[in-house]
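In this section we walk through a basic example: taking a raw amino acid sequence and producing a predicted 3D structure, encoded as discrete structure tokens. The instruction is simple. Fold the sequence below.
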Amino acid sequence: MQEALPEVTRVGRVWNPDNPIARDQVDLWDAEARARGLSLRSIRATSLEELDAAFARLAAEKIRAVVVNGDPVWVINSKRAAEIGLRHRVAAIWGHLEIAEAGGLMAYAPDILDLYRQAAGYVKRILDGAKPGDLPIQYPRWKLVVNLKTAKAIGVTLSPATLARADQIIQ
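The resulting token sequence is shown next.
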């Protein structure tokens, strides 16, 4: 987010406290924001209604950028989640690629299709006789998806570095 919108000094973070992965990252996010000289406003949300209220709060506090932790609640409702960001005109980077594809501004997340391909490769190798313990650890490929249509709609200009780094740009 800091690369995409270099002028941003105040950033929001929306996370679901019911998600143990997000809960484990709270202290890390706070420390990272301080290290980058950012003021971080952390808001909890467990439903789309609370997500909407969180974005409304951020907009009212003039916080124009938010990082939304990946969570099944958001990805299951990708279109509605993306519409919330658009309606409140808050630049959001989501933890699910599907949300940027549904109209969210940006997403940075593992490529789930690539994970399935990796899993299929493991299965094939095991069926061909490889011992599971002998197989190398593989990590997911992360992707950055940018939706320029949404950027225009909310009135933000993303940095050239972010556009150059993007794996997919939605016009």
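Looking at the output, two observations stand out. The chain has a mean pLDDT of 93. The chain is about 45% helix and 20% strand. In the next section we compare this with other chains.
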